[in-house]
Design goal:
It contains 10 helices and 2 strands, in the order αββααααααααα. With 242 residues, the chain is mainly alpha-helical.
């Protein structure tokens, strides 16, 4: 109700207006929990609190497991900035050599294993480096190649993160084999060698965390789409690069 002699502008607002204004002011004064430098202005459903726009844009799907219904993720996919488009072009160019010459089932298996590696969490808060990926893929491929020659011998990775990754990949590969998708032991060995090749050949940034290949997989192969890729295994002509 407007009191006589008072304009609509002077009319007191309800408590909800005051609460929302206070929440907005507080959110603008909080630092981003990921970088602790910039103002947190974007509510992140994956982190569970507000983060800054820079961390949202640079750590999306790499360090942050974004849900598919995130509005910022949808907007970025619909209208990626030029710098993101250039990064995507470089990423696809870097991944292309490992896909060349593969059959459709082999290509789909590589993408599935790549997504698994991208979202793999090592035990005991350890860090998974590209050298660990090389070790795990090489050990598994050698085991399968040896079995193909009629010799049962398990080759083992050296580092603990590599051994744990190899065990998890082995379980996934066995599950795929039991599903009757038509992927042979030889196909799997070829794909593992391609993963090893990709991790060996990708340039590492100077002074970086030596995970350029894993970061590449995380950017290209959205980890949240792994279930969709599993469902498409064994179906000819269903390979769709993200």
């Amino acid at each position: 109700m407007i009191v006589p002699g008072r304009s609509a502008i002077d009319t007191p607002r309800g408590p909800s207006h005051v609460d929302s204004r206070t929440a907005h002011i507080q959110s603008c004064s909080v630092l981003c929990p990921l970088c602790n430098r910039r103002k947190a202005r974007r509510q992140c459903p994956a982190v569970g609190q507000a983060i800054c726009a820079v961390c949202c844009g640079t750590k999306r799907l790499v360090e942050i497991r974004c849900p598919s219904d995130c509005g910022y993720l949808s907007a970025a996919r619909s209208h990626p900035p030029a710098v993101v488009q250039r990064q995507q072009q470089r990423d696809f160019a870097a991944l292309a050599p490992t896909l060349q010459g593969l059959t459709d089932p082999q290509s789909r298996l590589l993408l599935l294993l790549g997504r698994f590696i991208a979202r793999h969490a090592p035990q005991d808060f350890q860090t998974l480096h590209d050298d660990d990926i090389i070790e795990a893929a090489s050990a598994l491929a050698a085991t399968l190649e040896t079995a193909g020659r009629g010799v049962i011998y398990e080759h083992r990775a050296v580092t603990q993160p590599a051994r744990y990754l190899a065990e998890e990949l082995k379980r996934l590969i066995n599950d795929i084999g039991r599903s009757g998708d038509g992927i042979t032991t030889a196909d799997t060995a070829v794909v593992l060698r391609r993963i090893e090749q990709g991790a060996r050949e990708i340039p590492q940034p100077a002074g970086g965390r030596q995970s350029a290949y894993r970061d590449l997989l995380a950017r290209i192969l959205n980890a949240s789409a792994a279930d969709q890729e599993t469902a498409s295994l064994g179906r000819p002509g269903t390979l769709i690069l993200p």
